[in-house]
Design goal:
Number of helices: 12
Distance between the termini: 69 Å
Strand content: 25-35%
Number of strands: 37
Helix content: 10-25%
């Protein structure tokens, strides 16, 4: 049996919103509900533009929902609920208590990001449910419909018969209506650093990929995937499943079950608990982006809008910037992180220490000459020599090696108008880092270091806990809050996935959470298609510290036969295609000096006023255009297939002529023998122009458009 509700509709309150003011429109009332026993469902809430409709239903006391777009069902009846530990579950036996319907609209300005203003507009349905037995427990399901998708979460109000509780299973479902093409990575509980697999949803199966044998990783189910997972229907509609505002909860993976249904699977604590909670309690939002084209998919702000506004009072110290660093040289084998070798440790390579005072000065000098603001130094603090040995707590985060004079280097950099970027590698020892967290950030604050890269390479300690479980989600948040207390920006590696918390804590600038550049240094590398996929999968979650900008693509002097699987022009284009407010020029200074292509890295911004996906097919090619002030920057890349493309410049302003400075694959480019050939040329263009571009195998083009004044 099912119920339907009689709904009082209200007029659309849309109005033009001034750019500098935030206007909120809230309409709320309790609906008059008439329970009728009938089979058809009626839409209970629409998106503001009316295209997306959500129906809520109760079938035999089990709550469920369905979603349609333009009259076509895209999420069939999917059920909701929870199984608890030691207390009765909240999965069935529900009755409807009341419904509320609200509308909301605001414009808000991010402190930094990919656009200067964000529109937050939704219609909301609040479903109040009760189990009318002797416990009379209550739960609220809150749905929000945006023009580009939906979000919903569960809320457990304070109540007599639900105090502390343990969630053992979240029963959220997403039932698809067709076998879509999907881009996915395994539902690893410790890492997102995988190549993407492209398959039909029905064909998702880790056991049939190269990751089938991963004894160092824990994957809960062969049909488990991490989010965001992106899909495209046969008629071109894009869907992307993720979560927003992951706070004090376990990370959610999805398992493909029968009938093309995804079921939530939460990363457990060491003892098997999924989430430990106490009412009142609110879960993260479960999100579905629904987009008609690839530009709408990428430019969705749904996840960001489902987070709370900025909580930091003083944000004057938060500044996006480009950086270089003592980093790539250690990955390719020129130097190493540890200063000395300890028997039984990984640091027995005999390579020289990279983080020395003199080597860091060399990076500082280059950065100052070329207008790069930050210098990351990894391996500066004592303890690296014990990595891999049978010991814990070997990092204290405040004691430099004796060949690294941190006080001198901070002052030396400051005199040259640049600054050090701190580094906190934990080796997964969360307990040790927690104990030293306050001192570590206070140390950086007193030195005037405003940004830090954190790392959690290795298995989490205490043993049995996972990177993506509630234990570590709590820890990651403590790090961001402690960093904010001491005016430090965070770039998290081996992180929990981004779920939009950067809106609430804008010092959480960027994170890894992706198979990044370093894999090219010591593995089979990232395939040419990789960077045509991640903007529309991992990139939907938030900024990516991918660390582009490698100019010596084969680094044969240090390691063979490894290489970066792109042309040099594609490395330039990645600064536009992949977004990060902390963006690295990842190669060593000696590979940049004298190369005219470095001009593009010098000039490309890290903060944007507008972003457009000009074209793209996920896994094949894509073209991005981004605006900063009056200048536009374009990046276009391809996979292993060379392409001849005609790129429309209709995104440029009307009635203006621009000078287009083009950095493209050279005429003598050859992916295997001459991948670093770059041609640089200038032409005049307008928004009626179209550029004929030739992209080499795994090639690219990067363009700066400057108004011709």
């Amino acid at each position: 049996m099912a119920f339907t509700a009689s709904i009082i509709l209200f007029p659309n309150k849309e109005r033009l919103l001034p750019m500098k003011n935030i206007i909120k429109i809230i309409t709320g009332f309790t609906l008059l509900v008439s329970l009728t026993f009938c089979s058809p469902e009626r839409p209970l809430v629409n998106s503001p533009d009316g295209a997306i409709k959500l129906s809520f239903n109760l079938k035999n006391g089990v709550p469920g929902y369905s979603v349609s777009k333009d009259g076509k069902t895209i999420i069939d009846t999917s059920f909701l609920g929870f199984e608890f530990k030691s207390v009765p579950s909240m999965s069935d036996g529900f009755e409807l208590s009341s419904l509320e319907h609200n509308a909301f609209k605001e414009n808000w300005k991010p402190l930094w990001g990919e656009k200067e203003e964000v529109v937050n507009e939704y219609n909301e349905l609040v479903v109040n449910l009760i189990q009318p037995d002797e416990l009379k427990r209550k739960v609220i399901v809150r749905f929000r419909l945006f023009n580009d998708g939906i979000g919903f979460r569960y809320e457990f109000p304070r109540q007599p018969n639900l105090d502390k509780f343990v969630i053992m299973n979240e029963l959220t479902q997403f039932k698809l209506t067709a076998d879509h093409k999907a881009w996915w990575i395994p539902g690893d509980h410790d890492s997102y650093e995988y190549k993407y697999t492209t398959s039909k949803v029905s064909e998702i199966d880790i056991s049939k990929t190269e990751y089938a044998e991963r004894p160092d990783r824990f994957v809960s189910h062969p049909k488990s995937v991490n989010t965001p997972i992106t899909m495209q229907s046969d008629d071109g509609l894009y869907l992307a499943f993720h979560e927003a505002n992951l706070t004090d909860y376990a990370g959610m993976t999805l398992i493909v079950t029968e009938n093309l249904t995804f079921e939530a699977d939460l990363v457990p604590w060491a003892n098997g608990d999924r989430v430990r909670a106490e009412a009142p309690f609110t879960t993260p939002w479960r999100t579905i982006i629904i987009a008609d084209d690839i530009d709408e998919l990428y430019n969705s702000n749904l996840v960001l809008n489902l987070n709370e506004p900025n909580k930091l009072k003083d944000v004057s110290w938060i500044e996006p910037m480009k950086y270089i660093g003592v980093w790539w040289e250690m990955h390719i084998g020129k130097s190493q992180w540890a200063k000395v070798d300890i028997e039984g440790s990984w640091a027995g390579s005999g390579l020289p220490h990279g983080a020395t005072t003199e080597n860091t000065k060399r990076y500082i000098d280059f950065a100052a000459e070329r207008g790069i603001k930050g210098i990351l130094v990894e391996g500066w603090n004592a303890g690296w020599e014990y990595w891999g040995a049978d010991t814990t707590g070997f990092f204290d985060f405040v004691t430099p090696y004796n060949d690294f004079d941190i006080n001198y280097l901070v002052n030396y950099a400051k005199e040259k108008g640049v600054e050090l970027v701190g580094h906190h590698e934990t080796s997964g020892d969360v307990i040790n880092y927690d104990e030293r967290l306050e001192d570590a950030f206070k140390f950086y604050n007193e030195l005037g270091i405003r940004s830090v890269k954190t790392g959690y390479a290795g298995q989490i300690r205490p043993k049995g806990e996972r990177h993506h479980g509630q234990f570590n989600v709590r820890h990651y948040r403590r790090v961001v809050e402690t960093a904010a207390k001491y005016n430090v920006m965070v770039n998290a590696h081996e992180p929990i996935k981004d779920t939009g918390i950067r809106r609430t804590y804008p010092n959480m600038l960027t994170r890894e959470g992706v198979r990044g550049m370093e894999f090219n240094a010591w593995s089979d590398g990232n395939p040419p298609e990789h960077t045509t996929i991640i903007p529309f999968t991992r990139g939907l979650a938030g900024p990516i510290d991918y660390t582009p900008g490698i100019f010596d693509l084969k680094f044969e002097k240090y390691r063979q036969p490894n290489r970066v699987h792109t042309t040099l022009a594609k490395q330039l284009a990645l600064y536009v295609v992949l977004y990060s407010p902390l963006n690295m020029a990842a190669d060593m200074p000696e590979n940049y000096i004298g190369n005219p292509a470095f001009e593009f890295i010098e000039r490309v911004p890290v903060n944007w006023d507008e972003t457009i996906v000009v074209d793209g097919e996920i896994g094949d090619y894509t073209t991005f255009a981004r605006r900063n002030g009056s200048n536009w920057f374009l990046g276009s890349i391809t996979d292993e297939a060379p392409r001849n493309k005609k790129i429309s410049l209709s995104f440029l302003d009307d009635n203006k002529t621009y000078i287009a400075r083009i950095f493209r694959d050279g005429d003598d480019i050859d992916y295997d023998t001459n991948p670093t050939s770059v041609a640089i040329e200038e032409i005049k263009v307008t928004n009626t122009s179209a550029l004929d571009i030739k992209l080499a195998k795994s090639g690219g083009v990067a363009i700066i458009f400057t108004p011709n004044n």
